Amino acid sequence: MILALVGNQNSGKTTLFNQLTGANQHVGNFPGVTVEQKTGEIKGVKDTLLVDLPGIYSLRPFSSEELITRDFILRHKPDGIINIVDATNIERNLYLSLQLIELGYPIVIALNMMDEVRNNGGSIDEKKLSHRLGVPVVPISAINKEGLDNLVNAITSTVQNNLYPKKLDFVKNGAMHRLVQKVTGIVSANAQKVKISPRFAATKVIENDNPIITMLDLSKAQLNLVESAIKAMENELKLDRNAALADMRYAFIENICADAVVKGSESKERKLSLKIDKILTHKFAAIPIFLLIMFTIFYLTFEVVGKFFSDILAMGINEVIKICDKGFTAYGLNPIVKSLILNGAICGVGSVLSFLPIIITLFFFLSILEDSGYMARVAFFMDKLLRKIGLSGKSIVPLLIGFGCSVPAIMATRTLSSSRDRKMTILLTPYVSCSAKIPVFAMFTAAFFPKHRALVMITLYILAIIIGIAVALIMKKTVFKGKPVSFIMELPNYRFPSVKSVLLLMWEKAREFILKAFTVIFTVTIIIWFLQTFDYKLNIVDHNDDSLLALIGKVIAPIFRPLGFNDWRISTSLIVGFSAKEAVVSSLNVLFGASILQSGAFTTASAASFLVFTLLYTPCVAAVATMRKELNSTSKTLLIVLAQCLIAWIAGFIVYKMGALL
Predict the structure, then answer these.
(1) Angle of helix 356-372 versus helix 499-517 axis, rounded to 10
(2) Structural domain boundaries enclosing 247
(3) Do 250 and 358 reside in the same domain of the chain?
(4) pLDDT category of residue 2 using cuts at 50, 70 and 90
(5) Which member of 6, 125, 472, 641 has the lowest number of beta carbons within 10 Å of its beta carbon?
(6) Which residues 6+ apart lie within 8 Å of 175 measured at CB?
(7) Per residue in 179-200, pLDDT tens?
(8) What is the rounded distance in angstroms from the CA atom of residue 556 to the CA atom of residue 572?
(9) Measured between alpha carbons, how far is residue 83 from residues 87, 118, 143, 158, 391 in Å?
């Protein structure tokens, strides 16, 4: 049984999905589209898969989210739909519900946030609402787990008993009603051939929805009849087709809400949110407060909580290495195999794994900001700034995702409706420092800037943003002339973050990191060990300088010497970083053996230069491949990669020279 979860943005859809599926979640991409798709098995219900579709306001495809949601429903034909509705804003949410009901699939409406409705003195008669809509309506509170069993029982019963919506015709008279009835008759046979609801097909044809018109394969005569009927309606109502259709739906929604909904006073959450917003979204204070919040998060992550657990894990890994070393020596294991296991696998992968607590801690705080509703405010007050550099406020979403990983951030640009904005955001996303660089930053700040770790970290992030802005301004004046599209968004009420959602995100990030550590980084570490251990005749070397790796590194080294990287092993680690940024740490540990500070390969100035170069040079291979797919151009992608490396080199050179002077 495949069920689709559909609803407006900020309706509690993600919380409901997490509550119903728990840890039984799988993340992939929609077929043929690089947009993340979440699926999960509903707890306690055998062979039932829930698909979390992107949050939308309508099935009319203005954005890629709406197109993805509609195409999934029409092409994959789920067995049923759970439509989550924000009960505190029911009128707007029901607009999507009416369109979903028109599809004719078994559907259950989940009235979410009913606890807030009750707390504000309001009420909703779900029985009356169900009767008027012709589908089951179940009151729930996803965050408090209220009514979830009833919801699961309702949707499974509805699907198993083939209970389709009882009615699709919401208005019984008027010009718009007559038009819909007439067009339904014209397109009915075509709709049945492609197995979609004639009523839904009719409304889409009236809206001049080209993909649906193409799917229906209507004849010229049919299209002429439809256009003639639409013009007659427009002349009678003095409204265009889309306004008349929206008016019909909202008139019906107002009618049923007057009958079934008792509105309460303005919610406590709303009043509190407005008070908080006077401070957090203040014209002058918003950005300084945001920077202060991020500094606090970095301080707690790199100086207190994350550092504490990272140090413990590092000590544990060192003990494992010592125990294995003694055991292998006592056993008399072949020295080459011993070196492979200790210096290659355990040391390389272990050096990266020791930073796992830092990444988990960082995402713990970021998920709290997201779940509380603060990140939506960041998008709001950053809109004005982004427009000045040629981007829409909507671009902030992919850029914020970029703090986690560049791959989904580049994918998220699909949500931007303008091709210009999308391409420009793709080019800028790599300048947002992803979490894969955190192990590099953590290792170098601990070794060279131990008293100022948080300050150095936030300086790096700010530097990346400043350089990204400079690049954006140049592109705005040259390659991407024109204005960004307008940005409209909804600010949800502030809410306490869902513990489950926060923990699931932490688990997801930890799993991704561990998976990468034992696949990509493990492979790279073994390759580095091999190249470091043997010469070009595959003889074991006595000194690293005679190895295959030294041969490769010495060819590349002169390029990086002006940045203060006088040791070929440093430039080699940067090349390895193309595979995965975490691999920079593992390769340095394999190559140097001792700590970076004790090796003498870095001065404070060259360490700062190394941090800046790592911050700015091209992201990992996976991100570059995603960029290539999104831009659909190999030449443009290579040009971007070369430009990023050049910018990183120049910035690193400037920092090194300034550091040397200081």
Answers:
(1) 150
(2) 175-262
(3) no
(4) very high
(5) 125
(6) 232, 233, 236, 237, 244
(7) 999 999 999 999 999 999 999 9
(8) 8
(9) 12, 21, 16, 13, 33
